[in-house]
Fold these 2 entries.
Entry 1:
Amino acid sequence: MTAQPVGTPGEFHETVEVRGHIIDSLILPKILDCITSSGGSFRIVQVSIGQTRKDPSHASIEVSAASQEVLDSILATIADHGATSVATGNCRFVEADKDGAFPEGFYSTTNQRTEVRLDGQWTEVGEQEMDCGVAVDLAQGRAVCVPMSDVRAGQHFVVGHAGVRVHPQSRHLQARGFEFMNSQVSTEKPKGIATAQVALEMARCRRQREKVLVVAGPAVVHTGSGEHLCKLIRGGYVQHLFAGNALAAHDIEHALFGTSLGVKLESGDIVEAGHEHHLRAINRMRRLGGIREAVACGELTKGIMFECIQHDVDFLLAGSIRDDGPLPEVITDALEAQREMRKRIHGVSFCLMIATTLHSIAVGNLLPASVGVVCVDINPSTVIKLSDRGSFQTVGLVTDVEPFLRGLVADLSEVVA
């Protein structure tokens, strides 16, 4: 991506182009703002605007800066929004010299569809994920996202932004019925309409045999919402469940003792010595060998984990430093949990995140922008953090989990009625 000085002395420029829904998705204004806020200037050489909402647009922009260094910085920034140099050659790559670390200057990925130019041909980057590097295999003509922890010496990684182009996701959620639910977080969104639209999306996924991932926190159990999630599982609306030790432990505690954190969910009464119940529940699972074994022998007969096993829902429990026990199924190695999540999100079309900050952000980091995400949390900062991290496709619904899940189950019953 070499620029030549033109115009006034010391000025450098590069012409880039951007395609797609660059007007209605505000991609073009974002690019122009990035240029000016980074100390550069622009001249729109050509622009073609689509006449309907389905028609793509195209713009050719000359970017100028006072130095090559500033220009390169601007080009790197706007490349993440889909701006590609018209003079792009092949991508550049460097061999990794040690395990667990990228070469200096590596290209850092976004969660949006990306291509790299190999031997004059644009090649799709596989396993798209944000905050990774792009490993290339010239012999096979392949490129794939690789997380830092999985780097191995001898692999070749793309460096710089030359020969890389990003395709920003446009109108993805709108096409699925979420048009009014933009990614801005608000406590004033009409909850009933939002819940009904989530129901329509989950019903569509079931009808078309697409996979839905639910990421859930222990508040699902604490608020008495467990049975609502059980109904979704029994109805075939959930194919994957990602959670931590706490959700499973308190779900099993409730199944065995009728409490969650020692509180009777039906009455709200605090049970004497109830604070021990979650430990006794975990201990019983460990003595039996695990949750599946507890279901098989008839010890565990209800609850979220029971329904997952009964209805063949894939579940993954990722541990944390504060876990009691933990349950035998909990993956305590964080990097191993990430690797397992990466394997299991393939083919997921829709993700519903419910009342869990850390697991929502962790899963959001792994999902490509093509996967629709709805995050439901009483704390708006959860959705804000997801968006700030780059999961821009996330639709946020600020509400308590129990009325949301209750409404979702009711809406789904009407959809299929």
Entry 2:
Amino acid sequence: MKYEATIGLETHIMQKTNTKMFCACKYEYGAEPNTHVCPVCLGYPGALPVMNEKAIELCCKAGLLLGCEINPYSKWDRKNYFYPDMAKNYQITQADQPLCLGGQVAVEVDGEMKTFTLERIHQEENAAKNTHVAGASLVDYNRAGTALMEIVSNPCMHSAADALAYLTALKQIMEYGGISDCNPEKGQIRSDVNVSVRPVGQEKLGSKVEIKNMNSFAFIQQAIEYEIDRQIEVLESGGKVVQETRGFDSDRGETFSQRTKENAHDYRYFPEPDLMPVKISAEQIGQWRSELPELPVQRRERYVKELGLPEYDAGVLTADMATSDWFERVMVHTRNAKAVSNFIMGEMMRLLSEHGLSIAESKVTPEKLAEIIALIDAKTISTGAGKQVFEIIFNEGGDPKQIVEEKGMAQVSDDSALEGWADEAIASNPKPVEEYKAGNAASINFLMGQVMKASRGKANPGAVMQMLKQKLDG
């Protein structure tokens, strides 16, 4: 029997706000534990929450970027559960009336364009960070109460590849939109993954298994693939898939049972009595819409249509917002987009990888790369010499023109110097000369190499080729 997997994701994204969702405490990743706390985020009796207006704006802008309908009236609810990461034993969230409804993410998966639909985006507060050590569990409430939004997809994906493409696109959109830095290592993007399988042709979905709190895209992909295989194996052996919450053991590459669910809604929600509903006017939504930035898909299209870059280059450059912004800064000083793209995808990415640096930490600034490209375009130096200059600046810093001068990298285009090297190459290599004159046009490349060798790479290749053809064809 053939089976079909159905996958939905609940993705939690920490927003870029200066303070927490319902109090004035700031959040600072890596700060001394339990130093950015107050009676509100510690859940002291009588402490009252106050809404963070910036978080509401960012959530709604995220919704606009994803094509959601912004709800003009939304309210707050309490999600009750007893666990140390939530001091007051409930989380302030949105149940039946969230800020954003619907929406979609369009993305290419294995060469095919797919559209994955959203159910909703709602605003809530984050939980504290638990650290489990031998014989004890430690709780850091610095993260408790930080602004968090949950993007809930419909069960519309059918493979790990679908989920990975969806998450990658979602992360890019949130970064470009200024909603979140989406750093998985800092817990800024995490997903709960819902997986079920059913026989192909069956209308009813299979029992859903939820894999909780995953912050690695690679692990999400592994967990989905394992869980699909596990559920199919259970069904084929005559068993029944149990609705439950599972974790993922990254060392073993397996999911494991954590707890079973009596039903799909095992939290007890009720309206939050300490917060007023959120009312958003059409004028406010229009203002936020006018402030939306260019998204990665729009940048890719612009790079191809306006700058003439291949689609592959445009995809690589826009995959990371910092890289794309750096490219934009170089383009302020040059029109040679392809040369900029080649240097970024080649020398820059290679050297950044070797040294474990980000593009912002490179000693090669956008202005210096533009200078190197200008020297190449003016035929002052060869492309190979330009790559050498780039690496010197990356490792040691410096000025492109000064490095070219100090190291004698400038190309030789003087006819008298080129003519001497060309005559020597022709006189010393009669066989390729005869082959060229007999019709083997490729033989001239050997002579070209001899001239470049004699000039120690300084001869202008275009000028050399022109001179050799003049001498051999004359």
